[in-house]
Amino acid sequence: MNKGKVYLVGAGPGDTGLITVKGLECIKKADVIIYDRLANDEFLKEAKQGCEFIYVGKKSSNHILPQDMINRVIAEKASEGKIVTRLKGGDPYVFGRGGEEAEILVDEGIEFEVVPGITSAIGGLCYAGIPITHRDYASSFHVITGHLREDEEREINWNALAGCRGTLVFLMGIGNLKHISESLIKEGKDPKTPVALISWATRYNQRTVVTDLENAFETAKEKNVKAPSLIVVGEVAWLREKLDFFEKRPLFGKKVVVTRARTQSSSLSEKINRLGGKAVELPSIKIEEIEKNTRLENAIENIQSYTHIVFTSRNGVEIFFKKLYEMNRDSRALYGLKVCSIGSGTSEELSKRGIKADIEPERFVSESLFEEMKKTIKPSDRVLIPRAENAREFLSAKLSEICNVDEIFTYRTVIDESSREIFEDVISGGVDCITFTSSSTVKNLIEIAGDGYREILDGIKLVSIGPVTSETIREFGLEVYREAEVSTIDGVVEVLKSL
Ligand code: SAH
């Protein structure tokens, strides 16, 4: 059988723009992508359909898969005849054990190619405003692992490193920073030598801390500098003040949620990212009709036994009427029933079928509908609520205290795993604000958020494109933090810049 082929690809330091053209081609043609923590997983979006993704973790202290297992997986997938792209952060041969992975392939007779990448050891400094060499300050540079095995430790010539005027860049060194700085000082390096600590270089959450050699360890502790970080020792670090361009961009470091309407894709995300922020797109939700719904069929058969019917969403209306037509009936079947509706979208959908809702609360929430219905509802009434399986229980629970309620699930909203994960970020307060560019983006988000949306969104800044959208936000009982002065995407971006 064809033995497949492996591409060892450098994904660059993090910014998705910093991969080579060839590296990207390898992602696009791969049958399997094996990637680790430092390779930006945004690249996976570029893979072809059906491509298998294997995450092999790798934190310096917590290898999700030990290296020999990684080697095995790469070799195995290739020997199944597949194109395997092994995506590694930075350059594949700068630490990270790329050399060993390649050796195994040679030993196993598997064809392979290596695609170099921009190493964080150079590119990371660049994005922090630090040129790794400079005519006035550094005429060489040295890249050193800070994660030393005992026998490697002996190989490090601290004396030579301390004595040279080149820039020293330590990778995987944060856990060893005390030892590194002390060793350099002990061997005669000036304790005042500037040190830059750059975390998550080239990503939206890049952070740079500048200190000096004698204070490096304490400062790192105080500022909670964590891996992955680069330690840069040398006078070039001072240039950052002048040459920083990346952290100065207007939306730098801001994490902004962009909620899409069902089909709309967003140029807003692109703008946010270009200005240095991180747009988190909440994917739109999908509606899945409940099939073979005999309860719904029975309810329609006996529709005249109800006194009220409640619709809580546009989809609820659509699916109910679809069934009604399938059963050879139409709007006239609802003759005599009081029709209750939550939300302007729901009422609009009803009006397309020639129905004007009898009860329609001003605010688009179950609480308000209940308040309205409570005024007239009698114990002898029977209420039919065809609704989403995963919607709120509130209305039916409250109404059942007064009269008979038949709640029938007609559809469910399905949210894929990725949007749930993203939403968890929202919950944990990991975002600065949420943007809404239309009323349907508001409704979409609420649907994804589910029951406790008010508590979930509490404390997060909600930015609206204009008065109509703001109105919808308020109808859901939420507060608009700022509204764009001009109701356009650029207007929203202006608001974001000023947050
Ligand atoms: N092959 C990679 C390095 C792998 S070793 C490269 O060429 O960049 C892993 C170490 O690289 C991390 O511990 C950290 O010190 C450094 N590193 C990689 N990417 C980084 C980033 N975006 N920001 C800061 N440090 C990074």
UniProtKB/TrEMBL annotation:
Q: Which family does it belong to?
A: Belongs to the precorrin methyltransferase family.
The UniProt entry, under PANTHER family, shows: S-ADENOSYL-L-METHIONINE-DEPENDENT UROPORPHYRINOGEN III METHYLTRANSFERASE, CHLOROPLASTIC, SIROHEME SYNTHASE-RELATED
Q: Which Pfam families match?
A: HEM4, TP_methylase
User: Which of UniProt's keywords are assigned here?
Assistant: Methyltransferase, Porphyrin biosynthesis, S-adenosyl-L-methionine, Transferase
The organism named in the record is Peptacetobacter hominis
Q: What is this protein's gene name?
A: cobA
Q: Where are the transmembrane segments?
A: none
Supply the EC number(s): 2.1.1.107
NCBIfam families attached here? cobA_cysG_Cterm, PRK06136.1
The GO molecular function terms of this record are: uroporphyrin-III C-methyltransferase activity; uroporphyrinogen-III synthase activity
Q: Which domain of life is it from?
A: Bacteria
The answer, when asked if Transferase is one of the entry's keywords, is yes
This protein's name: uroporphyrinogen-III C-methyltransferase
Q: Which residues form the Tetrapyrrole biosynthesis uroporphyrinogen III synthase domain?
A: 267-493
Q: Which GO terms describe its biological process?
A: methylation; siroheme biosynthetic process
UniProt domain Tetrapyrrole methylase: residue ranges: 5-215
CDD domains, from UniProt?
Answer: HemD, SUMT
